[in-house]
Design brief:
The protein is mainly α. 75% of the residues lie in helices and 0% in strands. The relative contact order is 0.04.
């Protein structure tokens, strides 16, 4: 054995001119073989220092000497074997000469510890070790979860191509379908990166290899559809299907064809293919049937599900809806009865909620509200008020309809502030009641009730109750009180909702301004700061003073350190506020100062320039926004500007790429269609939503948004289709995990479905069927005045007077009842008169109502206009003209009153 000096001498020897091996290219010099051999020999030296230096030398030599180390693990010398294995273990776990000492120590400990401790250590390794080290560990321990984390770190660090290459390599090593699905999902997620680089072949390759499940196939199909290659792929798969051997291969091809045909728009073909599968997927078939609104077959399939699982509440709700739509009223009534019976046995919880939803969405609104009363009486009260069912709402809450009964009810609540759930519901109802009283002309009672509620909270009120009070005061137009009590709410629990509730139309901007003032003047009192925010968003006469306040904050924020974490966000909010106050030049300067680093500001710059038809300048800013955050809509709008500037081909290419980027995912709505619609590109937005509908399932949130947009888009020209879309959107909420966010939607949306269907049926001269739909509208929302106002004249025109009378009378009697309960409600007296005038019924009563409204609130243009309409329908045209002139004088900028005057005058000039 050589001496230590000899070892060091040999270790320093290199063969600098040696050529690197073809399979391991490197620019580093290779060690002399004799140096490696001598170092391995010295691993077993008697001298500890020599052993240590030899170990260090071999470790620093790196993986190039692995073969020699593996041979050393078979040495007869135990020390050589152990040290060689230790070095190899380091290499296998990515510990090399350039690995930081602290990271190397964690990894070495990781190798020794038990699984639970290893999990903690892995998190440290993941955040601190090099990618090379992480890959080494996951190659040595091929754990799917850890590999996924390594890929995600590569993605975060912008090494997308490396991540995809690694994922493709690992893909062949996975055995678990769940792990493979996650890996495929990761690969699909990276496709937009390659699309943005216009690497279409690579993108298609990744999509095809990751099309191992339904979402993957739909993404691939969306790509092919937009590239104009879907028909060719369908033909290719059909040919493969003919040659397929075995059921597994056939099923795989058929599944791809089903999704591709649906994305193409051949939904009938997709359904036919789904039926041909050897083992048909019932869930997939139901989705395809739902696409095509095949209610009869869906009803039968749902009945079959209930035959084996009669307690499935979701299936019961769908069965009722499908049988109703299919016209199977015996089965419909049977299922509704089962829902009622089920609900009777429940006292709360999700199942009761599902029963309530099923009744709401199948038109049994009153019964559903009774169930809602058992879950949340305040919500039930609010829904009844929304339906203008005041008497029912008050009875439901035990309030009564007289001043005395209201005072007694409130007294009981205020005497027992036990903060129980029941008390909290009643307090919420009380705040709503106080707001209602202000609306119906009982202002003094409303003020007194609000004062009593506020006094009851002093000392021990919680932030939640103060917010409820402030919100109701705001709706009652008691602005000062609302701000005072919102401030008290904020001081109680520092909840930002206390601020945003005061700024209904500008909640996000107001909260940001609150943060601006908090950051600039942290010691400022809550009420002072709230008053400053109020000055920016509540109408004031002194425009210059408001702009000066904005400019003052602008200068202070602009002067902050550029690294301040909120500076950019604050400047953007300041720019938006300049725009709100019609100061475009100041807004432009504000946005421009941050637009090169902040995509939303670049978008604002582009939007402003686009409105001025400065297409090239706008395109530059849209392109900057695209470069900053890669949002598809920014790229699309860049292309739109190029097209408007005359660069048609370049514009078309950019828009086509923008359409490709979302593939079959949710970004097609929130990253593209929604923004296009906001900028007036409704046709393009419709096209994106229609494609998204074919790329989504009925349990996807994006489907909910897409269907809503499609329904709104066709409502004017094709109300039957709008109703069909809205019905599908509504029925989606029969799924156990889907709900409308507010209880009122369970009334409004079903009513709109029947309303639009009635419009379509009347348009097609199917009057009797339309009347049935209108009756459903009134069953759901009896006091909605728009239904009789819109449809009574149409029914009169087709000589269906009896149906028109019924439609009018039900709504009129309810509004008349409200006027009896609240005789000082100018609003309701006016509404009763307007309804009668537009329906040309009970005109004498209408005159009494509208005169009472004007007596209560003189010089209100809206009420004087109603008086004019009543006179006009009575044939008193001169008096109608006088009323219209008064309205124009009171509100000269309201075009409606000018149109009314012209209408009345034109009528007088026409011969009888």
């Amino acid at each position: 054995m050589g001496s230590l000096p000899a070892l060091l001498l040999v270790a320093s020897m290199t063969i600098g001119q040696a050529s690197p091996s073809s399979d391991a290219p490197t620019t580093e010099p290779r060690l002399a073989p004799q140096a490696v051999s001598l170092a391995i020999e010295q691993l077993g030296a008697p001298d500890f220092e020599v052993r240590q230096r030899a170990t260090m030398f071999l470790w620093q030599a790196g993986r190039a000497i692995e073969p020699a180390l593996r041979r050393a693990t078979e040495s007869k010398n135990r020390e050589v074997r152990l040290r060689a294995k230790s070095i190899l273990d380091d290499f296998h776990y990515g510990v090399f000469a350039d690995t930081p000492e602290d990271v190397a120590a964690i990894i070495r400990r990781y190798r020794r510890e038990e699984p639970k401790t290893r999990e903690v250590l892995w998190e440290q390794i993941l955040s601190h070790a090099s990618i090379e080290t992480l890959i080494a560990i996951t190659n040595n321990e091929p754990t799917a979860a850890q590999r996924q984390q390594v890929l995600e770190r590569l993605e975060r660090e912008g090494q997308v191509e490396e991540a995809v290459t690694l994922a493709e390599k690992w893909r062949g090593e996975y055995g678990s379908p769940e792990d493979l699905a996650k890996l495929d999902e990761f690969i699909r997620k990276q496709v937009p990166y390659f699309l943005a680089k216009r690497q279409f072949e690579k993108s298609e390759s990744l999509l095809e290899q990751s099309a191992t499940d339904s979402p993957g196939i739909r993404n691939w199909a969306a790509f092919l559809f937009l590239r104009g290659e879907l028909d060719e792929k369908i033909d290719e798969l059909n040919a493969q299907l003919v040659e397929a051997t075995g059921p597994a291969q056939r099923s795989e091809i058929q599944t791809k064809l089903i999704h591709m045909l649906r994305v193409k728009g051949d939904e009938a073909g997709a359904l036919a293919m789904a039926r041909q599968q050897d083992a048909p997927d019932g869930s997939l078939i139901r989705g395809l049937l739902f696409d095509q609104r095949e209610w009869t077959e869906l009803a039968q399939r749902q009945n079959d599900i209930l035959a084996t699982d009669p307690n499935n509440i979701e299936a019961l709700g769908f069965a009722a809806a499908y049988n109703r739509l299919a016209g199977n009223f015996d089965d419909f009534n049977k299922h509704v009865t089962a829902i009622r019976e089920r609900a009777e046995k429940l006292f709360g919880g999700d199942s009761l909620g599902h029963c309530r939803e099923a009744l709401f969405l199948n038109g049994f609104t009153d019964e559903a509200i009774q169930l809602l009363t058992r879950e949340d009486i305040a919500d039930a009260f609010n829904v009844q008020i929304m339906r203008n069912q005041y008497a029912d709402a008050f009875d439901l809450a035990g309030i009564g309809t007289t001043r005395e009964s209201r005072d007694a009810w409130l007294g009981e609540i205020l005497e027992r502030p036990d903060r129980s759930k029941n008390w909290q519901s009643n307090f919420r109802i009380a705040t709503q009641l106080a707001q209602i009283l202000a609306t119906v002309g009982e202002k003094q009672e409303s003020v007194e009730m609000f004062e009593q509620l506020a006094n009851s909270l002093k000392g021990n009120g919680e932030g939640t109750q103060w917010r409820q009070l402030a919100e109701s005061e705001l709706k009652a137009k008691m602005i000062e009180e609302a701000f005072e009590h919102a401030a008290q709410a904020y001081d109680k629990d520092r909840n930002g909702a206390s601020i945003t509730l005061l700024f209904v139309n500008h909640s996000s901007s107001a909260k940001t301004w609150w943060d601006i003032y908090s950051g600039l003047d942290p010691d400022e009192a809550t009420r002072t700061r709230l008053a400053r925010v109020r000055n920016l968003f509540y109408q004031r006469k002194d425009h210059d003073e408001v702009v000066a306040e904005i400019a003052k904050a602008h200068a202070r924020v602009q002067a902050l350190d550029v690294k301040h974490r909120s500076r950019v966000k604050w400047l953007h909010a300041i720019g938006e506020t300049y725009q709100l106050h019609k100061e475009p030049e100041q807004a432009r300067l504000c946005f421009e100062s941050i637009a090169k680093e902040h995509a939303p500001a670049a978008i604002r710059m582009a939007d402003m320039l686009a409105k001025q038809e400065e297409w090239i300048a706008a395109s530059d800013w849209y392109h900057s926004a695209w470069q900053l955050d890669r949002q598809p809509y920014a790229l699309y709008l860049y292309g739109e500007m190029l097209s408007k500037a005359g660069a048609e081909e370049a514009g078309r290419e950019s828009k086509q790429l923008a359409r490709l980027l979302p593939l079959g995912g949710a970004a097609r709505y929130d990253g593209l269609a929604a923004h296009l619609a906001q900028r007036g590109l409704e046709d393009a937005a419709y096209e994106e939503c229609e494609l998204l509908r074919r790329c989504s399932t009925w349990s996807d949130l994006q489907m909910f948004h897409a269907i809503a947009t499609l329904s709104q888009s066709v409502a004017t020209d094709d109300p039957l289709r709008a109703a069909a879309y809205a019905e599908q959107r509504m029925l989606n909420c029969l799924q156990e995990l889907w709900h409308f966010t507010d209880a009122g939607s369970y009334v409004r949306i079903p009513m709109e479905v029947h309303r639009d269907r009635a419009k379509g049926l009347l348009k097609g001269d199917e009057v009797s069927d339309a009347i049935v739909e209108l009756q459903m509208c009134q069953r759901i929302w009896p006091a909605d005045l728009n239904i009789p106002e819109t449809f009574v004249p149409q029914l009169d025109e087709v000589l269906r007077t009896e149906a028109a009378d019924e439609l009018f009378n039900r709504s009129y009697e309810l509004i008349d009842e409200t006027c009896s309960i609240f005789p000082n409600s100018a609003l309701h007296h006016n509404n009763a008169a307007w309804l009668a005038a537009k329906c040309k019924r009970r005109l004498d009563e209408a005159l009494v109502h509208v005169n009472r409204a004007i007596e209560l609130v003189p010089n209100e243009a809206q009420y004087i206009d109603t008086l004019g309409e009543v006179y006009f329908q009575q044939g008193k045209t001169d008096l109608a003209i006088d009323c219209a002139k008064q309205c124009v004088e009171l509100e000269p900028n309201t075009s409606f009153y000018q149109e009314q005057l012209k209408r009345f005058q034109t009528s007088r000039e026409q011969p009888e």
